[in-house]
Amino acid sequence: MARGIEGRAIFGDDRDRWHFLDLLAKLPERFRVIVHAYVCMESHYHLILQTPDANLSQAMHWFNVSYSAWFNARRNRKGHLFQGRFKSVGIENMAWAYELSVYLHLNPLRIKALGLSKRDRAGARLGQGRSLSDDVLKERLKKLRSYRWSSYRAYAGYTSVPDWLHVEAILEMAAKQPSRRVSAYRRQLRERLTEGADPDKLDTLRDRVAIGSAAFVAQVKHGLGTIGRETDGKRELRRSLSFQDVSGALEDAYGMDWATLLGRYGDPAKWLVLRIARRYTGMTLAQLGEAAGGMDYAAVGMALRRLDRKLPDAPELRRLEAQIVEMLDVKT
């Protein structure tokens, strides 16, 4: 999670939100991060992520810096957008991730007008909550279903699931039978809204160091172990790749060694190597420039943008790219 500096808005309009999601969609490809759920609020965001490579800091640094730079450039703004470093909380397993997904997806409804502000929820926990009218419930459900800036609509079957969002692992916690999982998830969120309170005990999320059993939380607090991969819902997207893996695949597919290709002016195949490495190794533009013989990072960025424009009209290049990606086995 990350918040705007001094509680300021980090989203000014829908264009900001769409760009945020465009960047989020790149995390699985660039950093092997599994995106389980998200919600965008005016002044903050929450994500449920899984990192098979234990590279959360690297991925989130790229994500927050990329969004901040875009946000500032669009508004001719300078300075920090987010309030310090992102905050992360370890989750013990998918059962707890399920509870956290409910917390995230109900976030847009936590307002006084819907009777779900912090004071309203505290009163309900103390047995002081008012009975819920049908009109209030309908208004809450309408808000939940219509809110576009969270993963709930994909979980609830109201929209298609983008290929970068992994909903299966959490939905498995909703029901045993696959055919019942989406409806069960919708029903269980409706029940949470009907209760008028949050019984998931996650209201103090910002103060937590971990979410799970008492033993797991104690282990994290006292540094007796590290937060490893989840024990449930674990899925490896692909093996880790290096630049040498990508250039080696190009050599096999193209029949030319990388050093020779670097010296061939105007051959787009070398930019194809950088494009694929950019997508699947998490390398920065500066690192790609170094691998390409010491090029400036800005020149690398311009070359990759030119290649993006060229590819739609270059079927042979697209076939070569597909062949290299297949050789790298990046989907396993």
Could you explain how this protein is built, in words?
The chain is mainly α and 332 residues long. The chain folds into two domains: 1-235, no CATH class; 243-328, DnaA protein, C-terminal DNA-binding domain (Chromosomal Replication Initiator Protein Dnaa, Chain: A), CATH 1.10.1750. The protein has helices at 14-24, 27-31, 56-75, 94-106, 118-125, 134-146, 152-155, 168-171, 181-195, 214-221, 243-254, 258-262, 269-280, 285-291, 297-310, 315-328; strands spanning 2-3, 34-40, 44-50, 90-91, 210-211. The strands form two sheets. It has a three-stranded antiparallel β-sheet. The chain has a two-stranded parallel sheet with strand order 4-5. Helix 11 runs antiparallel to helix 13. The longest helix has 20 residues, at 56-75. It is elongated. The chain starts with a strand and ends with a helix.
Q: Extract low-pLDDT stretches.
A: 121-130, 197-201, 224-238
Radius of gyration computed on alpha carbons: 23 Å
Shape field: elongated
Q: Mind summarizing the main beta sheet?
A: 3 strands, antiparallel
Spatial strand arrangement across the major sheet = 1-3-2
Q: How much helical structure, as a percent, in the residues?
A: 40-55%
Tally of helical segments: 16
- What is the percentage of strand-forming residues? 5-15%
Q: What does the average pLDDT come to?
A: 82
Total domain modules: 2
Structural class: mainly alpha
How do the SSEs run, as a string of H and E? EHHEEHEHHHHHHEHHHHHHH
Distance between the termini: 29 Å
- Please count the beta strands (DSSP E, at least 2 residues each): 5
